Amino acid sequence: MIKKALFLALYLVIIANAFIHAQTTVNTVPFHGALATKTRYQVVYQLNSDEDAHIKATLKNIRNALSDSRLINKLDVELVVHGKGLAAFKIGSPYEELLRQLKQQKVILAMCENTMRERDIKREDLYSFVSYVPSGNGELIIRQQEGWAYIHP
Predict the structure, then answer these.
(1) Which is more confident, 12 or 126?
(2) Helix H or strand E encompassing 13
(3) DSSP SS3 for 72
(4) Which of 69, 98, 102, 103 is deepest in the core (most CB within 10 A)?
(5) According to the model, what pLDDT value does residue 9 have?
(6) Domain residue extents for the chain
(7) Which run of H or of E encompasses 2?
């Protein structure tokens, strides 16, 4: 009986040590995120809010993606603006400099023409460096079907 108890105790110590070693080994391997193994990545961002915090967060998300060391010179970005998001592209908005910087980094700044028609907005009301798409929703659908990642901050 004593031999069985001793054997069981020894067995439990061995199992516990193996478990502790496995946990230690797994937890000591540093994680640095996914590897960017492809030559190109594409992402489309949606902006349909006129809330200052939302607009700023969306633009910050884009800047962060563009500066991710894994994605530098590998990333195609499009910002699709529709609905209330129109506020970001209107002349006189506080976002002009941020938008110009993104445009210089080759970000496509796409305005929904449906929104413009519905709100009686002319191209002259928006920054001259903005591009246009017939439908913001249509653009998002097409980009996603083409395999672009979709982000709606």
Answers:
(1) 126
(2) helix 2-28
(3) coil
(4) 102
(5) 47
(6) 1-31, 41-151
(7) helix 2-28
The pLDDT of 139-151, averaged and rounded, is 98
Fold of 41-151: Hypothetical Protein Ychn; Chain: A, (3.40.1260)
CB 115 within 8 A of CB 86: yes
> How far is the CA of 85 from the CAs of 2, 69, 118, 141, in angstroms?
77, 29, 13, 18
Closest C-alpha to 102, from 146, 151, 147, 58: 58
Report residue 110 as tokens: 């796409």
> Please, which residues have CB within 8 angstroms of residue 94's CB and are 6 or more apart in sequence?
52
**Could you read off the pLDDT of 103-123 as tens digits, one per residue?**
999 999 999 999 999 999 999
* Distance between CA atoms of residues 62 and 66, nearest Å: 6
DSSP state of 126: B
Phi, psi of 136 (to 5 degrees): -60, -45
Helices marked H in 29-149: 52-67, 96-104, 113-118, 136-145
Q: Over the stretch 83-96, which tens digit does the pLDDT of each residue have?
A: 999 999 999 999 99
Q: Which pLDDT belongs to residue 110?
A: 98
Chain CA centroid to CA 24, Å: 33
